[in-house]
Amino acid sequence: MSESSIPAPVSAVVDAINDGDTDAFVGAFTPDGFVNDWGRVLNGPDGIRSWAESDAIGMNARMTVLTAETQGDTTTLRFEWRSQKFNGESDAIVVVENGLVKSFTIPPH
């Protein structure tokens, strides 16, 4: 997947996960941003940090983007995820607002 086809704010989230950088991950979101993982919504910097530690970076996650489609401020990703908690393919819907990620949603399958 070409990095140039992924908007910079979305790429920042993927890079932060793969770099194991929780501060960069949290910093990629708007102050009122959130992660919605299968209906479990974690709001604001504290919620986002909690998800990063319990489900992503703290579980040594690696995220490989397989496809990305952007329409307006919304990017839909198909990705492969490898971690100590979950392995497999999934989707994400990422909404960008003012150059930062407003929401990162992993819908249930």
UniProtKB/TrEMBL annotation:
<protein>
    <submittedName>
        <fullName>Nuclear transport factor 2 family protein</fullName>
    </submittedName>
</protein>
<feature type="domain" description="SnoaL-like">
    <location>
        <begin position="10"/>
        <end position="85"/>
    </location>
</feature>
<dbReference type="InterPro" id="IPR032710">
    <property type="entry name" value="NTF2-like_dom_sf"/>
</dbReference>
<dbReference type="InterPro" id="IPR037401">
    <property type="entry name" value="SnoaL-like"/>
</dbReference>
<dbReference type="Pfam" id="PF12680">
    <property type="entry name" value="SnoaL_2"/>
</dbReference>
